[in-house]
Design goal:
149 residues, alpha+beta, two-stranded antiparallel sheet, 9 strands, 38% strand
Length: 149
């Protein structure tokens, strides 16, 4: 039972920070497990992690798009630095924007993918380097996020 407590606390923390309309989920990348908020609608993608003041190292936000296309994310009203990881239809890492700074006022820069992406994972800045993320890494997603479209 003791080993379940950290997992339960992680899920509770994620539930408290999850926005209405976001599913809770989990992903694995390079042997690291992250609880995630899964965002599949346009309004959720536009809002993302805006106005948050913290993001734990084991938590992130997974954006799921209906198709693979070049993507660009911006940091308007995002108060925490992030790593933005772009994955293709096969969930392979195609590009990474590391240590993207917060942006509290316009103009805010856009951080594009280097290729078509269907999944985008935002994590605390420094996480991609800490886990050694590199092009071609496969993102494992717990559950079926495709049905949430």
């Amino acid at each position: 039972m003791k080993h379940l407590l950290p997992l339960v606390l992680t899920w509770l923390a994620a539930a408290c920070t999850a926005r209405i309309g976001h599913q809770l989920g989990a992903v694995d990348l390079r042997g690291q497990h992250f609880s995630t908020e899964v965002v599949t609608d346009e309004a959720g993608r536009e809002y993302g992690l805006m106005n948050r003041t913290t993001l734990t190292q084991d938590h992130g936000m997974l954006f799921v798009f209906p198709d693979a296309a070049p993507r660009g994310f911006w940091m308007k009203n995002t108060l925490i630095p992030l790593d933005i990881l772009y994955f293709d239809t096969n969930r392979r890492l195609v590009s990474t924007q590391k240590n993207v700074p917060p942006c509290k006022a316009d103009p805010c820069a856009t951080y594009p993918s280097k290729g078509p992406a269907r999944y985008v994972l935002e994590l605390s800045a420094g996480t991609a380097s800490r886990i050694g993320a590199q092009s071609g890494d496969v993102l494992k997603i717990d559950g079926d996020v495709e049905t949430a479209q």
